[in-house]
Amino acid sequence: MATGTLFTTLQKQKPIKKPNKLVTKFSGLLQYFVIAIVAIIATLSVELGQYFILAFGAYVFIFKKDSRIVFAIALFLLISIPFFQIVNQSGVADNIAVYVFGLLVVGTLKAILELILNKD
């Protein structure tokens, strides 16, 4: 009878599968690169892009995202500027440069806030 009870207990317990940390981290980074691509699409209108940067800045502050993510997106956009210059899209490259500046401002403000809050 003891083995039957043990077998029944083992059947009831199902292992809890934890998500893979690499998959979780990749999906988190993927969302930020999607946001960066949306910013590139927003290059058709400077105002639209600046509103997007403002909304993204609010997102970063409200949901307490790491400032390094903002700097990574800025770097990604900065690296894309020469490619737009190569394909003779100087206007797009100029707009992206404005967005990079806005992202650097947001990232710097967020980094300063992180330093103040983590001073303890």
Report a brief summary of the structure:
The chain has five helices and no strands.
Low-confidence stretches: none
- The total of beta strands comes to 0
Strand content: under 5%
Provide the residue-averaged pLDDT.
81
Count of helix runs: 5
Structural class: mainly alpha
Rg, rounded, reads: 22 Å
Helix/strand order, N-terminal first: HHHHH
Biggest sheet details: none
Task: Give the CA-CA distance, first to last residue.
Answer: 59 Å
Helix content percent band: over 70%
Please state the overall shape, judged from the principal axes of the Cα atoms: globular
Topology:
Layout: H1 2-12, H2 21-41, H3 46-62, H4 67-86, H5 90-117
Structure report:
The chain has 120 residues and is mainly alpha-helical. The protein has a domain at 45-120. Helices cover 81% and strands 0% of the residues. It contains 5 helices and no strands. Helix 2 (21-41) packs across helix 4 (67-86). The protein starts with a helix and ends with a helix.
Which key phrases capture this entry?
120 residues, mainly alpha, 5 helices, 81% helix, globular
